[in-house]
Amino acid sequence: MTHRIAFAASKTDEAQAALTALRAEYGEIKPADADVIVALGGDGFMLQTLHRYRDLAKPVYGMKLGSVGFLMNQFQGGDLRARLAAARPTTLRPLEMIAIAESGSTVEAIAFNEVSLLRQTKQAAHVRVSLNGVVKLEELICDGVLVSTPAGSTAYNLSAHGPILPLDSRVLAMTAISPFRPRRWRGAVLPASVEVRLEILDHYKRPVSATADANEVRDVVEVTIRESATRTVTLLFDPEHNLEQRILDEQFAF
Fold first, then answer.
1. Angle at CA 71, nearest 5°, toward 22 and 94?
2. Catalytic residue selected from 33, 43, 79, 238
């Protein structure tokens, strides 16, 4: 197959130099007309690329030219079209966030990694946690709480001591950030079909922000999170990349 390739790159000198060289060799195609989008950078830039081109439904092949590259293939010379032809697809299902702010406005956003709630002041957040309309925690006192996809489970979720999830597990991780009460509660692994509602208690005194990847909403009073039933994105990985094996190995890394 002759792939029509669109390139996107982060602003670093290294990524921009690679972008110039690859466009000189393979040409410059608009993303809407391409068969595949090649992203040059780190995981942060990969997230930007997925958000920017999510409505095009094009597969994305990343090459690592950044500090973190869990979702990226190694950057190397050679026949890029041959690598693309041999690449294996992995389907990601993002989260949908519906956040209601104190002002009454409603903000909807997509998260490929996680939706996180964080306290905005020195005072801890008080959050009521409901799953499918049933209250599970009447009051979670914490610095914050997040809900992560399998793809995002090795990012902020892992830093907050949440579980690493296999990509095809169809589960989500709910992880508390510095929980104070209940003292022993550290989070839960949820089926992907569950709808999570997080209500902010005493939100005037204890304001909380909600962030879907990099899209932040301040002073929220209620946030609903669920896996998207209609949106998916496809990442392409070299056969030797083996993302599932990397996720397994990460659980034994020190």
1. 115
2. 43
